[in-house]
Amino acid sequence: MVTQTPAPHSPRRAPAAPAPARAPARSHHIAALDGLRGLAVLGVLLFHAGHFGGGFLGVDLFFVLSGFLITGLLLGEARTRNGRIDLAAFWGRRARRLAPALAVMVAGTLLLVGAFGTPSVVRQALDDTPWVVANLANWHFIADQVGYWQSSDTQVFSHLWSIAVEEQFYLVWPLLIVVLARGGGAGSGDRRVAVAAATGAVLSLVLMVALADPVDTTRVYEGTDTRAFSLLLGSLMATEPAARLLRRAGERAVGRWSLVLAAGIAAYWFAADGQHSPGLFHGGLFLHALGAALLIACVARAPRSPLGRALAVPPLRGLGLISYGLYLWHWPVFLLLTDDRLGLTGRRRTAVLLAVSLAAAWLSKVLVEDPIRFRARWSYGRTGAAALLAALLALAALWALTPRPAVGAGSVDITRLTAGAPPHPAPAPPAAPAPASSWISGATARPLVPS
Q: pLDDT (tens digit, 9 = 90+) per residue, 315-329?
């Protein structure tokens, strides 16, 4: 809000002429949306900790929020600049927001995995790193037929499929908005964007239903095309036609609707159970995304409603403000701090994992994200591009210098264990020193996957 100091009173002064119409101001920050981010990342953390079967839907909520906010910013710029959008500036802002924290997390995780990870985890991390840096991790996992729901406990970067989906959206969708928002009368650009978003969301749903595989749902769960409807439904609610409908309803009615929507979404979260949720890939995710998009639009329209005030409480808002770093760091922390390494299980281990993840996210925000976003003048223009290139080269060097374990290291050949085994347990022979060339080194074999 902009406040003005009144001019000194003068009885002789003639009434001022009406001021010319001003371009709409940039949208103010809505604290309740930070609270929604906080709930989304909390759901994901509890899901990965094994305490909340529906928490994976927090990723879907993130997608919808991203579509809503990014499209709102782009259309707002188009309205104030006669349909023009500075794509270079937009992509620069996205790079400053996302790339530094991601690069630091990838580098830190490679160092930690090299020091503490099992050979299988190290190999998988090195295989995945180039695709993570290229923002193509989701398609890499799909092409390798790595089942997300079954194999992610050996991949420290498995959660970054969603970051790749968003980055691909940020690359393609603004190009389409530039074309659709240009020309025509007032509001025509918004209408074209709304039609494109709605049409794209329906096509994405059709693809998900057509490609759904009951054996392995990774293709439809991680595919950019099959998850695009979440981002596009959020985009649809950021357009002027959707905003006009909410204005006509009035703020009080919108506030009541937001409570109903929140109750429905919460019920679905508590009823869902991972990929086994009934109808999840045959309209369930789409309906969840649609409800989330309506909820976000309602909260943005009525931030002072009871729900808006509840979402804006400091703990939820604070969690939302560090949600990006928290999402980046939590899965490597969860994977590396095993039960054996901590000596803890159950809720006590979860408490430690959450504390470490929160600390890493806070450090990421105060030491990496905020300084580069808000205070680093060098992060703009050519120096910013040079810094990004230098970071990529440093990551490439770290990746190349990280020792790659030999194939089979850290695993047990089951065929050799069972070959020639008697049908019943035989008495153990007298103990003898293992030969130097034994295929199992040490007293016990290391498990195939982390414990």
A: 999 999 999 999 999
